[in-house]
Write a structure and sequence with these properties.
Structural class: alpha/beta
Strand order of the largest sheet: 11-6-5-15-16
Largest sheet: 5 strands, parallel
Number of strands: 19
Distance between the termini: 35 Å
Shape: globular
Radius of gyration: 31 Å
Length: 631
Amino acid sequence: MLKNQVRAAIEAAIDQSEALGPREGRPPVRVEYARDEKFGDYACTIAMDKRFRELYAEAQPEFKNPRKFAEALQAALENAQSGGAESIFTKVEIAGPGFLNLTLAPQVLFEYARAAAVDPLNYGKSKRENPRKILFEFVSANPTGPLNVVSARAAALGDSCCRLLAAAGEDVSAEYYVNDYGNQVNLLGISCLMRHVESQGVPMKFFEKDGEEGAYPTTAGLPYPSGGYHGEYLKDVVSAVVAADQSLAVPEATLAILKELATGSDVPEDFLESDSRSEIAALTELAARFGRAAIDHFLETQKRDLSGFRVDFANFFRESTLHESGEVLAVKDKLGERLFEEEGKTFFRSTEYDDDKDRVIVRDDGRPTYLLADIAYHNTKIEREFTHVYNIWGPEHHGYIARLAGAMQALGFPKDDFRVLIAQQVKLLENGKPLKMSKRAGQIITMAALMEEIPIDVARYFFVMRTFESQLDFDLAEARDQSDKNPYYYVAYAHARIQSIFRQCAERDLAPLPDRPSGDGTADAAWQQCVENVELTAERRRLLLLSARLIEEVQDAALAMEPHRITTYLYALATELSQCFGQRESKGIARSPEPAAGLLSILKAVGVSLKNGLALLGMEAPDRMERESAE
């Protein structure tokens, strides 16, 4: 990694310097990008670090002055390169009170271009000596309907984070938590049952809202559950699950009773519980079976949609298994002194962990709350020996973080190793006008529908090009646009254009420099000659530097879990390509064999960086596109 190489050179120069030298307890050397390319490629700020200066001022008091310390460091770097070792810098300059600006030597940049040529599939990836074992949970949508665009954004963000972390050398597993237990499953089952009997000729009536209030109409019909799932999609699901299991069909005798019951206008909403007839009572168990069947159907649909969106999970963990095994109530024992009883309820002392109040985990009737089930689930992550646990949640769950983070600490998990990322909502637009979504009312844009409407590469790019914290305005009209105004296509066209230049040059037997060491050293000589002879204009050098930074861009984006950094990087790289290799220069390469090999090697490094950067976000880089301006 380029930044590490710069840091290592500085540390070595300090250690070898008579004026400085090694010191026990020395802080890490900080290296950052130069504020402007006119100052250099990187900046070292350790002369501004009081800890550094005081450490070395014990022997030489003048080092309390940042400028004096910077001068000593500059001399150390210059002496290191004059001592016979090949310097990685062509310029080391002091700016301001003690900033050190560093400009890299061309051979360093070409080393990365060669690395991209030698192992293009792995360029951008790195290894860790002791990789963290990370469980990354994301999407985890309720399996009570198809995935919508909000889940699609969480999927794109979570999958991109996992890909980046893996590329940075971490051991990452992606997991989906299936909330297949509780009241929502009961409501889904009753909703499915009612849709089924409706399809068999039993009339329904629906709750009508009037502001905060509402009521059922006074007409005849069975009352469809007011809090149930109203989407039209449910009708297709009911047809599918009944076709797969005919035992779910309501018997004709029961249908006759329901039709008779529906002739009245005052049937209570809880008639399934209040009607004592055995035929009606049996429908409660049938509704539960409908709920389980619908959950299974939706889960399979979600798996299919996620796979189509290039998102793969190592595990789908079902909440119901925790209740069936008794793990939900059993996890109480691990919380120990962090619990207390009050009015027949069991509370978790979450206020000890910055929550605004203590939370009920067991109700007065002995039933566990959702929080206790969540604690039990996260306890399995600890038991499965994951060292770091990361979750992506929606903004409506922001207030939930403190209580669960507190529970993780109460279970003995390190505070800093548990993290929740909040992915803000998606605001769907069509030509600037908002589209409304509601899962229960059936007014939703599903992930499947989005994939039919918008290419997967474009959708994923749009979903990750903003920070987690930013609400995303996703304009479908802009996403359909295939011009370079669309940021994905702008980057994709850059890659396709490079491949177009390669095809033109291949027709004239022009190729990049050798990508493998040769037995007689000719490949090494060719690369050295390239470093010495290629005219490295500011634009070409900028391309080399950007492509060399891919590895550290991936590391930084992975560590911060900010995949938008990669889209920013890719767009900048595509922009530099456009500025550097216009049509005139592109055609000039094909006509001039002398510098062609070196220039094509620069282009190859850029092409590999574009392709691999997109791949780390789950996108493809086409070799051919209709608008290849170079052809």
